[in-house]
Amino acid sequence: VQAKTEEFAATLPAGVYGEKVLSVKHYTDHLFSFTMTRPDGFRFRSGEFAMIGLMVGGKPVYRAYSIASPSWAEELEFFSIKVPDGPLTQHLQKIEVGDIILMRKKPTGTLVLDALTPAKRLYMFSTGTGIAPFASLIREPETYEKFDEVILTHTCREVAELQYGLDLVKEIRSDELLSELVGDKLTHYASVTREPYEHTGRITDLIASGKLFEDLGLPPLNPETDRGMICGSAEMLKDTKALLEAAGMDEGANNKPSDFVIERAFVG
Ligand code: A2P
User: Fold this and answer.
1) CA angle, 78 then 80 then 81, to 5°
2) Which of these, 124, 146, 120, 71, lies nearest to 262 by C-alpha position?
3) Structural domain tally of the chain?
4) Distance between Cα 236 and ligand 1 center (Å)
5) So what's the ipTM on this one?
6) E strands within 157-212?
7) Closest C-alpha to 128, from 168, 89, 86, 161
8) Does the CB atom of residue 33 touch ligand 1 within 6 A?
9) Is the distance from the beta carbon of residue 203 to the nearest atom of ligand 1 less than 6 Å?
10) 81 shares its domain with 117
């Protein structure tokens, strides 16, 4: 395997890392996560994404993937959907430990703490694999230095799709260092839209009706105290953004920090 890896490394295009898969976990027919080695010198901010790829028929195929592990972690973690005819994911879903993943060297993204001005509370709104950048940020010490309360909402069609997030939060709470870091600042609010569950409904409906805030025991969105990050499908971003703007919140960016930031959950 070593010889094969070195041989492969020699064929890598400039500006691309070749990293070894360390673990793969399948959650449903449509969702899986994996970890891979982190290249020496690869730096990123929690919440950013990178271009991940595989050689397919002799050519590299890349897609944008949020890095789900925090900036301090030794390994890189990703959470992906499986699309039967997805140019990358139809192959990526078959990866095994020891396989080589391509990664372009420059991470980027708007779901970073630097893009938000300070406030009391941070809401992270996610649907589906849109939870990935928040998996990184809820394990980032800076998140808890900057905010007193962190609310992660995750909405999926079915209960089984919530498992990645449920496992992650459980892991944080049972980890000695992370649980101390997070304390009681983190709230995980999970809902589904196509099955019965403790909480049901789209996050947009839960915000609009006030049910989310009632369930959390918190006041409605307020630009004085609240900040937001949104990650989901294009439609979900549009609808959630409209609700935050209706609450008087302004969209920010890396070079213009403000009240909320958005990023598409990538697919394909
Ligand atoms: P629904 O089941 O009502 O479509 P998807 O897999 O289609 O991206 O959906 C993931 C989750 O996001 C589902 O629970 C889905 O609810 C929800 N969703 C889809 N579109 C929107 C939207 N425009 N605003 C808020 N939530 C949405």
Assistant:
1) 175
2) 124
3) 2
4) 7
5) 0.98
6) 186-192
7) 161
8) no
9) yes
10) no
pTM score, whole prediction: 0.95
Looking at the structure, do residues 98 and 9 belong to the same domain, yes or no?
yes
Cβ atoms of residues 50 and 67 within 8 Å: yes
Q: Residues 34, 145: one domain? A: no
Ligand 1 atom at minimal distance to the Cα of residue 233: 8
User: Residues 137, 143: contact at Cβ < 8 Å?
Assistant: yes
Query: Which ligand 1 atom is at minimum distance from the Cα of 155?
Result: 14
Query: pLDDT tens digits, the chain, 268 residues: what are they?
Result: 455 566 666 678 778 999 999 999 999 999 999 999 999 999 999 999 999 999 998 899 999 999 999 999 999 999 999 999 999 999 999 999 999 999 999 999 999 999 999 999 999 999 999 999 999 999 999 999 999 999 999 999 999 999 999 999 999 999 999 999 999 999 999 999 999 999 999 999 999 999 999 999 999 999 999 999 999 999 999 999 999 999 999 999 999 999 999 999 886 5
| Domain with 161 in it | 113-264
Q: Tell me, using a 6 A CB cutoff, whether residue 230 lines ligand 1.
A: no
> Are 95 and 120 contained in the same domain?
no
